[in-house]
Amino acid sequence: MKMRIALFAKQYFSNYKDNYQSIINRLELSNCDIFINKDFYKLLKNNVHFKLEPIQYQNLNDFDKKPHAFFSLGGDGTILDTIQVVRDSNIPILGINMGRLGFLSSVSLNEVDKAITSVLKNNYILDKRTLLSLKTDGKLFGDLNFALNEFAIQKKDHLSMIVVHVYIDDQFLNSYWSDGLLISTPTGSTAYSLSVGGPIVTPGAGVFVISPIAPHNLTVRPIVIPDNSTIKLKIQGRSKSFLVGLDSRFETIKASTELVVKKCNFTVNMVQIGSRSFFDTIREKLNWGLDIRN
């Protein structure tokens, strides 16, 4: 079967020129149909040689047949953008790390050839990741109303706190006096949530984590709730507008806007190569068990 592989990236890194060429060569050698997102192709075309011109795309509607896999070339932020293209199509995503920490883009450059071989032979595990979705009256984020990592409310005025009233399945949880509030998926537990004191959660756990950002009351801690909960939020504050975010995308809302966060009705399929586990990844990325004082 002839494989269809889509490459997605946001930036071209000149120091990885040989790595880009190696990926292209490997796919061409395997007689794959290669698709590249248009913005990245403009950056790539004068720096990498193609035997045949790849097919350019902007979204899934540009494909006559769905790709067998997406290769995300960059860091974790690139994967978040890849998901905006893949959406609910169930197409597997292989994260090739050309960024920094790389919890999601966990395939290092010296593992790329092995990873590509595994994908082309369908010899991999699908790691299904839960997303959350946001509902507002005005359809704030349009059809991109989902997030892999987290939902965030943040103040726009740096001088004053905001109050976020939170209800879980119509039961009052708390009024958070803080700089903002995060609702994180298990995947997002190693992202922004971790930096505000949230716990690390294994990807398969059916939970969300609610964490205040710089809370006024230091006894208010992150809380873990079932991911089948419906979370309603109402905002108060001196400012007339606030920031609401889904992963790296932000919009401005008025205080009167009611926000409803729930588990998304689809998951994302991340490609896991070999026996590498989530625990292996966090030990490596967070330097657990290493004495770095010397």
Keyword list:
single chain; 294 residues; alpha+beta; Rossmann fold; Tumour Suppressor Smad4; 2 domains; six-stranded antiparallel beta sheet; 6 helices; 17 strands; globular
State the gist of this model.
With 294 residues, the chain is α+β, with helices and mostly antiparallel strands. It has helices at residues 17-29, 38-44, 76-86, 112-120, 192-195, 278-285, and strands spanning 4-8, 33-37, 55-57, 69-74, 93-97, 125-135, 146-147, 150-155, 162-168, 171-178, 180-184, 207-213, 223-226, 231-237, 241-246, 249-254, 259-272.
What does this structure look like?
This protein has 294 residues and is of the alpha+beta class. The protein folds into two domains: 4-124 and 273-285, Rossmann fold; 132-265, Tumour Suppressor Smad4, CATH 2.60.200.30. The protein contains six helices and 17 strands. The chain has helices at 17-29, 38-44, 76-86, 112-120, 192-195, 278-285; strands at 4-8, 33-37, 55-57, 69-74, 93-97, 125-135, 146-147, 150-155, 162-168, 171-178, 180-184, 207-213, 223-226, 231-237, 241-246, 249-254, 259-272. The strands form three sheets. It has a six-stranded antiparallel beta sheet with strand order 7-6-17-14-9-10, covered by helices on one side.
SSE order and pairing:
Layout: E1 4-8, H1 17-29, E2 33-37, H2 38-44, E3 55-57, E4 69-74, H3 76-86, E5 93-97, H4 112-120, E6 125-135, E7 146-147, E8 150-155, E9 162-168, E10 171-178, E11 180-184, H5 192-195, E12 207-213, E13 223-226, E14 231-237, E15 241-246, E16 249-254, E17 259-272, H6 278-285
